[in-house]
Structure formats: C-alpha cells, structure tokens
Amino acid sequence: MIVPVILPIVAGLYILKADFKERAARERFVSAAVIINAAIVLLLSVIGRGLTLSLLPLVPGSPVMFRIDSLGAMFASMVAILWILCIFYAYEYMTHEGGENRFFAFYTMAFGIMMGISFAGNLITLYLFYELLTFITVPLVIHDESIQSKTAARVYLIFSVSGATVALMGIAIIAFTAGTTEFVYGGVLSGVAHGAVAIQLAYLLSFFGFGVKSAVMPFHAWLPVASVAPTPVSALLHAVAVVKAGVFAVARVTYFSIGPDLLNGTTAQYIAISATLVTILYGSAMALMMKHLKRRLAYSTISQLSYILFGLALMSQDGYVGGMMQLFGHAIVKITLFLCAGAILYKTHREYVWELKGIGRAMPVTMTVFTIASFGLVGIPPLPGFFSKWFLSVAAFKSGSNALAAFGLIILAISALLTAIYLFSICVNAFIPGEGFDTETANKGVSDPNRYMTVPLTILAIAIIVFGVLVQPITSLAVM
After folding, report:
1. Residue where a domain stops, chosen among 200, 229, 261
2. Could you tell me the pTM of the whole model?
3. Whether the bond into 382 is cis, omega within 30 of 0
4. Residue of 46, 79, 366, 385 with fewest CB within 10 Å of its CB?
5. What is the pLDDT of residues 281-325, one digit of tens each?
6. H helices within 20-146, ranges in order?
C-alpha cells in the first residue's frame, strides 16, 4: 500500500542526480516509473479496498495511517490515469522550457505525494502529505526562474502554508473532541451535540484552510498568478493535483470526520455555502473579462471548484454525489483545456484570446478537442458537466428550507451562461473567424503539435465523452 507513495518519490530523487546521456533515456525511465506506479494504484483500487497500514505515530492516537476506501481509490485512480497522459504530453512541451531533469524529478515526486493524500487513513496523514505537496510543487511553479515565476511561487507558498496552518487548528479541535482523526463515512464525532460551537469552528477553520488550495474566496488570488508556470504544471495545479487535493480534504473533513448531520442547518454551513456561491459567480465573471487564455481558464477553475464545494456544503447525499461528479468530471475537462492552451502556446507563442482567430483550421485536432472540452465544462448533455450540475441542482432544490441553497440554483444558472460565453466565443472565432479575415496569412506555418501532445489530447477528448455517458456508475464507486 505504501509502494505507490514511495516509488515515485525515489524515482524523482534519482532523476535529480542522474546523468542521462540523451532525452530518450530519461523519457524511458520516467515512463516506466509512472506507468508501473499507476498500474499498482489501479490494482490496489480494485482489490485493496479495506486494507489498512499504520506506521509511526505523529501525535498521540493518530499514527501515519494509510487506508484504501471507495473515495480514496477513485481519487487515486483518476490522478494516476491523468498523470500518465500529462507526462507524455510534457515530453514534447518541455523541450523548449529547459531544466527537464529538474522538472521531471519534481513532477514525478508529486505523483507519490498525491497517492499519500489519496490513501491517507486519517486527517493527520492527509495533512502531512498536503503540506508536502505544497513544497514539492513550488519548484515546478518557479521552473523558468523568471521574476514572474518567483513572485508566483512566493504567493503560492504563502497562501498554501497559511491555509494549511488554519486547517491544522480545525484538525486539532476534531482530534481533541473525537479522540481520533480516522476517516469514517458519516463522521467520528458521535455524542457531540448538533451545531456545537467548537465543531462549527473546527469545520470553518478546515473549510477555509483547505479551501485555500481550492481557491475559495477570499483566498483565491494565488491561482491566476500561478498560471505563469509551464502548461503541464498549470494542468497539475488547476485540474489534477493541487486544487483537487484541497477539495478532497474538505470532503474528508465534512463527510468522514465531522459528519454532515452535525453541521446541517448551522451558521457554519450558511457561511460555507455563501463563500462558494460568491466564488462561483466571481470566478465566472472574471473569466469572461480575461483576454489572456490561461488566466481565463484559471478564473474558470476558481468558479468550477466551488461547484464541488457547494455540493459538499449542502450536507446531503445528493450534494455529495453531485460534488464528486463535478470533482472527477472537472479534472478531465479542465486538464484537457489547459493542455490545448499549452499546445497553442507551444506552436504559436500566442497567449491571448484575440490571437486565436481562424486557428481551428491550422490546428484542427487541438481546437476540436478544446471545443469538446468546452461543451463538457458548460454542461451540454451527455457530457460530464451536465450530470454534475443536474445533481447539484437537485440537491439544492431538496434543501428547500435552506434559502441559500435555493439561491444557489440561480447562481449555477448564471455561471453556466457565463461559462458558455467565455468558452464558446473562443471556439467560434477559432473555426469561424468572420468575413474578411485572412486565415491563411494569420496562421501561416501553424500546425498541430506532434503525437506526444496530440495523442494525449485525443485520448482525453474520448475520455470526456465516455465519462459523460458513464458518470453515474463511475461516481457511485466513490460513494459506496
């Protein structure tokens, strides 16, 4: 059980010191490490449910513990599959960035840290790897060592460490009250009064502390700034690892530590829901205003992540299911959008939306995949975003006594409209630039990247469609 955590970390440390004579040798080593690790993760996720491993104690009553449950297995499987695609994409992309040994070393180590988060059996273990993820990804943000990237890394580090410190206070209250930090669906705080002030405080500290990585307002500012990192890192930050680690941690605290029954109808719940709704609307509005492509996608991420947090904050089974659908669906869709943006940047050095007129004819594979992903994020049936928004809307409607939840239906509708505008405008201009626009001249010499990048993009496009069709049975595996 600990192998998927240790293997990538050891492999990454080796890459840092290794003297690869040629790029192909490093690619073979990295591919082997990542694919073997992913295979182990998928095997454990299928046959290892219920396995538990306790190691040395960090604090009294809370050892470093790993346990494979349904949510952890599904989360780990998603991360493992997407990591493989990102690695192959990065082989080509990073040829023009330099520092490849350092990049692939930390990128590989981050895979192991994410497995530690996925398979954590208690809050203390999750917190340990949550902090390690911050420090292992800082070198990726700062990769090109420019002033911009150094500033972004500093902001990211300050926000992440501060948020984790706040979350630790919430964990301490839970540990003191429950006498344990283990994960049990429904919570471990039996015998505690509904709405107890200490428990509400613990929830809010954990929600906003872990919510820093999930970019919930007012702790979202680091995410757009961090988009200066290389695109494979942006995909890691915005879709697969960092932001999803924050959401995953909030899910663990809400449904596996405190328990929704103790929080439903409390002031703490209303504060959390309010924060998610403000973030959803703000992120969508800012994305519409952004002319820089990666920043538009970054603000989109801020909005879409709070869809998940909104579902979790509804404190209901329907909200939890809707949140999980959004978690998995958004990961696939948003990583696709970022990798498409990276392909455009790699081939054309264009960074702004207005520069993409007619590019769909020069880069048909990239922009077709971008369009499919856009449909998926907006929520066109039967793609992933439709089902997650449907379940979130149903959950909000069922919370009839909660006026904020009902108001959430309006916010979700407005956000969906804004999402359609800021994504579809790109797609339309890419394929239909308008009368009088000289597409051939504007995109002379532009073409799709090679198979290292187009094959992962094509696989992701297929995955979006397949996941949309099978989203309900797939998500059910995470909530059993």
Report:
1. 261
2. 0.92
3. yes
4. 46
5. 999 999 999 999 999 999 999 999 999 999 999 998 889 988 998
6. 23-47, 70-93, 100-118, 123-141
